[in-house]
Amino acid sequence: MQVQRVVLNSRPGKNGAPGPENFRLEEMTLTPELKDGEVLVRTLYLSVDPYMRCRMNDDTGADYLTPWQLSECVDGGGVGVVESSRCADRAEGDVVTFFNWPWQTHAVMKGSVLQKVDPQLVDGHLSHLLGAVGITGLTALFGVREKGHVTKGANQTMVVSGAAGACGSIAGQIGRLDGCVRVVGICGTDEKCRALVEDLGFTAAVNYRQEDVPARLRECCPDGIDVYFDNVGGAISDTVISQLNNGGHVILCGQISQYNKDVPYPPPLSEEIQETLQSKNITRERFMVLNYMNKADAALCELSQWVKSGQIKVLETVVNGIENMGDAFCSMMKGGNVGKQIIKISE
């Protein structure tokens, strides 16, 4: 069987933005003779996500992430369908998902690592298994619940950076559903601002490329900021933190503005910001979704209900074809996506 796959062609410079030339499309022959316990899967959808930029370095800077190897197949979140099986509990036709799915059109994998999913969980929108009703949704939900300390009736204001991205767009809606009276998103285009307010029910949105962020935040958050869902780090986060109320909470989810730089994760803060955190008794703890997987099944059911009922709206940017993986990844790193960036590999 002839299949296409994407391998890591080169690494970006330690302080460099990734380019499509860092990836290479290859043809290979797959022998579909399965060993005991193996399945042949056809890939339906693949995900590209900011954390993958760290995997492009020879040292990811995070003990839970392994680097991609040069000339080896790249991997990440994927969903597909079993085409043949020698694994007792994975049958032909099963829809399966995996966090380390190879970027290939077909693949042979151990059936035991693949999670079988009921398509009804997402009303047949299988790409949502990589986003709102998958690891992205869990990241948003556990971030808000475990680190955000949102309390119904407490008149809280939440700010989300990277708010039109996969995680931020869900996190803001969960903040609203869990009881925040104001949810303000920060993003990089007027189109994204409109989507946040008109489609997702954010109270307001700030375009950091065009607007005076400190002034707009003061205007949109007249009672200050209680909860900050941080996806970007850097100067934007410093601005938000400086406007947090006493006893506020920072949900440290991601730092995409820093991922092309050779700095540790999480990147160091300036002395001024560290003093703000201390003097205002603000919590800012590292957050990792993998620490909460014992609660994942119940959380996925809740996310599924919210999406099916329309209480959470899902934004996606879908690109077709495995040959476009590199372009889609680099576009996402520059903010070219609205919502979750998905690559459709097959029907």
From TrEMBL:
It catalyses: 13,14-dihydro-15-oxo-prostaglandin E1 + NADP(+) = 15-oxoprostaglandin E1 + NADPH + H(+); 13,14-dihydro-15-oxo-prostaglandin E2 + NADP(+) = 15-oxoprostaglandin E2 + NADPH + H(+); 13,14-dihydro-15-oxo-prostaglandin F1alpha + NADP(+) = 15-oxoprostaglandin F1alpha + NADPH + H(+); 13,14-dihydro-15-oxo-PGF2alpha + NADP(+) = 15-oxoprostaglandin F2alpha + NADPH + H(+). One of its GO terms (molecular function) is 15-oxoprostaglandin 13-reductase [NAD(P)+] activity. Keywords: Cytoplasm, Lipid metabolism, NADP, Oxidoreductase. Transmembrane segments: none annotated. Residues 19-343 form the Enoyl reductase (ER) domain. It is found in: Cytoplasm. Gene3D superfamilies: Medium-chain alcohol dehydrogenases, catalytic domain, NAD(P)-binding Rossmann-like Domain. Its EC number is 1.3.1.48. SUPFAM superfamilies: GroES-like (SSF50129), NAD(P)-binding Rossmann-fold domains (SSF51735). It is an enzyme of class 1 (oxidoreductase). GO terms for cellular component: cytoplasm. Functions as 15-oxo-prostaglandin 13-reductase and acts on 15-keto-PGE1, 15-keto-PGE2, 15-keto-PGE1-alpha and 15-keto-PGE2-alpha with highest activity towards 15-keto-PGE2. Overexpression represses transcriptional activity of PPARG and inhibits adipocyte differentiation. Belongs to the NADP-dependent oxidoreductase L4BD family. This is Prostaglandin reductase 2. It comes from Collichthys lucidus (Big head croaker).
